[in-house]
Specification:
- This protein is 46% helix and 6% strand.
- The relative contact order is 0.16.
- A two-stranded antiparallel ribbon has the order 1-2.
């Protein structure tokens, strides 16, 4: 799985908003400047995050975005699934149940399932709070 800019930027937006939380709404323009990302591109990302209750949005004067929950309640895996889709490394694992005609006899299926499981567990074990506090997220994994 290759993480696109959409997934990477969604994490950066969530982290930026968490780090600059004062209880007030944070203008997207401020996030865009700090992250050096086009405000127009970020609009499409925060739209997805807002529609799925990851961010609260407010339009108009004093408007912007803030987290809907505490930073420790946001798993990186959930943000990536929302923006990127499944962690499936091969097409046959994208849907459940696996509809591949060769699933019963496939010699490589367990390998791909294991790879997917490791990836999901890794990203699900990291929160926005961990990134804020610069926790060494590689502690449990050999990199």
């Amino acid at each position: 799985m290759k993480i696109s800019t959409k997934g990477r930027y969604a994490i950066r937006v969530m982290l930026d908003i968490a780090e600059h939380n004062t209880g007030e709404f944070i203008p997207l323009m401020d996030v865009a400047k700090r992250q050096e990302i086009s405000e127009k591109y970020l609009e499409s990302i925060v739209s997805v995050l807002s529609k799925n209750d990851y961010l609260i949005s407010l339009r108009g004067k004093g408007g912007g975005y803030k987290l809907a929950r505490n930073p420790e309640d946001y798993k990186i895996g959930d943000i990536l699934r929302l923006t990127e889709g499944a962690f499936a490394p091969v097409a046959c694992l994208e849907k459940k149940p696996n509809r591949c005609d060769k699933a019963e006899t496939c010699a490589t299926l367990k390998m791909w399932e294991g790879f997917q499981k490791v990836t999901e567990e890794y990203f699900d074990g990291i929160t926005i709070a961990d990134l804020m506090h610069k926790v060494d997220v590689t502690d449990n994994y050999v990199i």
